[in-house]
Design brief:
- This protein folds into 3 domains: 89 residues; 86 residues, Signal transduction histidine kinase, dimerisation/phosphotransfer (DHp) domain (Helix Hairpins, Orthogonal Bundle); 149 residues, Histidine kinase-like ATPase, C-terminal domain (Heat Shock Protein 90, 2-Layer Sandwich), CATH 3.30.565.
- Helix 1 runs antiparallel to helix 2 and helix 5 runs parallel beside helix 6.
- The strands form 2 sheets. A 5-stranded mixed β-sheet has the order 2-4-5-7-6. The chain has a two-stranded antiparallel ribbon with strand order 1-3.
- By secondary structure, it is α+β, with helices and mostly antiparallel strands.
- The chain is 59% helix and 12% strand.
- The protein is built from 8 helices and 7 strands.
- The two termini are 55 Å apart.
- The structure holds adenosine-5'-diphosphate (ADP).
- Adenosine-5'-diphosphate binds next to helix 6 and helix 8.
Amino acid sequence: MVVGLLTLLTIGKISSPRFFAFYLKQIEVGGLGVRQVRTQLIRSFDDAWSKGAFWSVVVGASTAGALSYLISKRIVQPLIQMEEITKKFAAGHLEERLPPNEIPEVDQLADSFNRMAATLEGIEQRRRELVSDLTHELRTPLTVLKGYLEGLADGTIEPSSDIYERLSRETTRMQRLVNDLQELSKMEAGYLPIDARPIDLHPLLSSIVRRFADQLLTENSPQMQLDFSPELPRVMADPERVEQILVNLISNALRYTAQGSVTVKAYTEADKVWIAVIDTGTGIAEDDLPHVFERFWRVDRSRDRHSGGTGIGLAICRRLAELLGGTIEVESQLGQGSQFRFSLPVVREKTTLRLDGKRG
Ligand code: ADP
């Protein structure tokens, strides 16, 4: 605005009187006698021009200034608000949100900000829950261990194989929790090596299924089954990581299936091989399904605490499936059973897998 006004004034001041004088001369050439009043005319014109220019500058500058102020206020206001809210966020008030704004771009920014705020709030909530869960999970086995060890030390408890088994069970539970957490943090930090190579799934799947079937000794236990299509192509994967995913999924399926069957099924679809673990167990409610792969999430917290669940298993599975270049999905119906399936890339000519899991 300032540059515009200065240009207008400078050029107007220099050129207008010259033009005016030029036109007067033309009028004189046409026969009209303005020679006597010429100087006065030019001075009057100059005077009129200066007054006009002055008022133009005053009105133009104040209107433009007022408009600029109002518009920038409309833009700056939500930004200041955002700054205040981020400060409150940093101070731990994660429930703060930005109101909608009539400027589409600012509204979009507010929307993204709110989404980020909601995610952060969720993470923070889960972190708090994790700390309280971990404390609880560790306190129970530690109390039991301490009680038994003190009893054994002062002779009030007779050492027996049963006691040692109990002690060992509690230690295993703690070990699992610590291992799960370590594994997940390693994966999230990107430290987990993936040694992908072309593998034949049949021997791997049948050995895992056999191992689980051997542990199901009671009559009421669910049946372990393998449904394997004979023409299955080789896949590009790290067998140890595939086993890790499967052990997690089958352990879950067996934990939540009192009767019926747990089937491991492998089949091809386009350029992928899917490995599915299908159970006839408790199933998962539709509302809970989007959360099952989240860290530390469990359908029924009190029930799973006793069954030893940490809510980390499926988060590990998802990360592993992604590192292997695939995806993991779940379908489930409450009371009917669940199906967890993950995909692996089929071996193609000249396909290589880099250490970070991305196909090159
Ligand atoms: P956890 O160590 O608690 O099993 P996961 O991450 O493996 O943790 O599973 C998260 C939650 O998903 C479990 O606590 C359970 O409520 C639910 N879930 C997982 N697999 C199944 C299944 N096959 N059937 C029913 N619920 C399941």
